[in-house]
Amino acid sequence: MEPLAKNDPRQIGPFRVIGLLGGGGMGRVYLGRASDGRTVAVKTARSELADDRGFRTRFAREVAAAQRVGGPFVAPVVEAAPHDDVPWMATEYVPGVPLSAAVHDHGPLPARTVRLLTAGLLHALTAVHAHGLVHRDLKPSNILLTATGPRVIDFGIAHSAADTALTMTGTALGTPGFMAPEQLSMTGARITGAADIFALGGVIVFAVTGDGPYGNAEPQILMYRTVHEEPQFGELPDGLSELAGSCLAKDPMRRPTLPALVARMGAPGPYHDWLPEPLALQLRRLSTQLGDPRSGEAVPHPPVEGPANVAFDGLQTRTMAASPAPPLPTAPPQGPYRSDLATAPPPPPGQPASPGPSRRGVLAALSAVGVVAGGGALAWTLWPDGANGHSGGTGAGVGPSSSTKPSTLLPQAIRDKGIVTIGSDLAYAPMEFLKAGAPAGLDVDLADALGRALGVRCEFQNATFDALLAGLNANRFDLAMSALTDTKNRQDGRAGAGKTVGGVDLIDYFRSGLTLVVRKGNPEGVKRPEDLSGKPVAVQRGTLAQSYLDELNRKVPAQVKVHTFDSPAEVYDDVAQNRSVACLDDFPVAAYTVATGSGGGALALIGVQIDPQPLGIAVAKTNPALRDAMRQALDHVIKTGEYAKILKKWSVEGGAVERAVVNGGR
Q: What residues are paired with 462 via a beta bridge?
């Protein structure tokens, strides 16, 4: 829990606000105290979303879904006001550890615990399905382990099995690795409660083995495996293999029903001693720290020797020990910009912003909240304060004043409007950093410089990454600039799920690969990836970094002990706390984290970038005039030294290119 900032509320509805739990998918989550001393978690919407009618509809739907479901294994809604000026929802707060964090910190759970966990989850799903709802995102981070049994949380994407009015065609809602095949196919079976049964099978496998039924890979790979391959989890104890395997049947009609599973597992509980002692001790300490009257008599305990994981509604925060290590980035697990318009709270004055998820891992976050496939996008952008007198709109414009004449190098249509529209997924480095809640980073500053060189304003429009090239060729924007690796496939129009029209040219402006981060002073003497043999290394789950370590393990004498996490903040924290000797991350995120206060001064880059690839500004092949104008502008910015200053500002000088090159010079 973090202390309240100056602008944080001190009272929400009838609840006194006593601390900040963190930033959720739609705003901030506070720890509140009721008049009888009970603690509640109050989820509030961001102020800029409060006037969005569509957002209010979604928020009200989430509240309604959560209010309809009750029982001992679901976090109940205490009170809510979805139509207040700032919508909010208060849920009973019970100290708990996410299943994902419990398995990571303490290892796979014993068979007895998993059976009790399964029995509780079955009763939670029974309560959900009894109201005609499908949870649709049952996964380890949405399951809390509490002293009184498991709790299912986060009904943010729950839907009525009969209500599809708010579901867009081509939208996949859920988390790769735990989504059912029918959730991944637009032409597959209708989504029913059988999808939750499939996810339950994956949760069982994760709890027993520490890994999902389709392994660890990038989201697209997990989706492919889910549809086309059989789950792999070996022998599980106490008949859990047969149970998990039946739940993971690809055909929803072949999965067992909830009543059949409940009859098989029996009544849930008792839960008085259901957790391994390290987890039980962690929960007792947490209850004492919160001072909740329901936690019983406060028993003195020795100081906590490490961070305790606390979760609410899919959000994980860290309650630090009395003598914590230097602070590290605390970006939300799913990043500052997602397809549901999530954002991190602005940093305190003078403190650099925390990095978000790596560009290779952010697809997992997008999938977790609903990826819009086949060209879908968010039609909004961000403007700096006072830009061209604009207020309350959805554009982020940078560039010269309106009195500057556009360059004659530009196509006439762009000169006439005085604006170059740039499609970008704001969650991707090097665009993802935040300053005072607005997007900032290399891409923003470079676009500003290019716009000034050409006498136009650059306006960003946010779109999902896989839809950028399709949107470019559909003339929704003039350029695409979003960590697009310059590859022959992209040039020829073979990118993402389909073929773009006519392909693109890419003006290379940056080089980015993987890089190693170690503790200051490099006490383990790590100089190259091969030096990680036999050592613990931290990576973000489902990223190229994890795939690289998997490949490295085929070559080194002793296996690298891979520690996987859901967010960059946890990755760097693991190194700083001396649990891993190093971490592997995308160069822009790693360099910025290490060089700024958000790295705590405890970390250092080591070695050179691993397999750096050029990132390019994409222009449709049908628009060579715009391509040549942007290339000349980039060359101008490089020659004047402004390019070097921008890279230095973001501590990413190691990614510099010497000159503007189109399609890698090919």
A: 380, 424
Cα separation, 429 vs 545, in Å, equals 15
Q: What's the burial of 522, exposed, middle or buried (CB within 10 Å: 0-12/13-18/19+)?
A: middle
260 — pLDDT class (breaks 50, 70, 90) = very high
Task: Provide the annotated active-site residues.
Answer: 137
Is the separation of the CB atoms in 459 and 397 below 8 Å? yes
Residue 255, token pair as written in the block: 């999965």
- Residue 361's SS3 state is coil
CA dihedral of residues 285, 286, 288, 293 (deg, nearest 10) = -140
CB of 461 closer than 8 Å to CB of 393: no
Q: Judging by beta carbons within 10 Å of its beta carbon (0-12, 13-18, 19+), is residue 99 exposed, middle or buried?
A: buried
Residue 241 · residue 233 · CB < 8 Å: yes
Q: What is the CA radius of gyration of the chain?
A: 25
For residue range 117-128, list pLDDT tens digits in order: 999 999 999 988
Which positions ≥6 away from 582 have C-beta within 8 Å?
516, 517, 518, 524, 526, 532, 535, 537, 538, 575, 606
Domains, in order of start, for the chain: 11-95+279-298 (3.30.200.20), 97-265 (1.10.510.10), 362-511+615-665 (3.40.190.10), 513-612 (3.40.190.10)
Q: At what angle do helices 194-209 and 99-106 cross, to 10 degrees?
A: 20
Closest CA to 289 of 568, 49, 95: 95
- Bridge partners, 422 (sequence order): 460, 479
CB-neighbour burial class of residue 227 (10 A; exposed 0-12, middle 13-18, buried 19+)? middle
- Number of other CB atoms surrounding residue 45 within 10 Å: 23
What pLDDT score was predicted for residue 431?
52
599 pLDDT higher than 70: no
Can you read off the two tokens belonging to residue 172?
């996949």
> Strands (DSSP E) along 13-136, which ranges?
15-23, 27-33, 39-45, 77-81, 88-92, 97-98, 133-134
Task: Count CB atoms within 10 A of the CB of residue 190.
Answer: 11
Distance CA 364, CA 262 (A): 31
Query: CA 38 to CA 218: how far, in whole Å?
Result: 41
Ramachandran angles phi, psi of 457, nearest 5°: -95, 140
pLDDT digits (tens, 9 = 90+) for 351-379: 333 333 333 333 222 222 222 222 222 22
- Is the distance from CB of 427 to CB of 336 less than 8 angstroms? yes
Instruction: Mention every residue, 6+ apart, whose C-beta is less than 8 A from residue 665.
Output: none
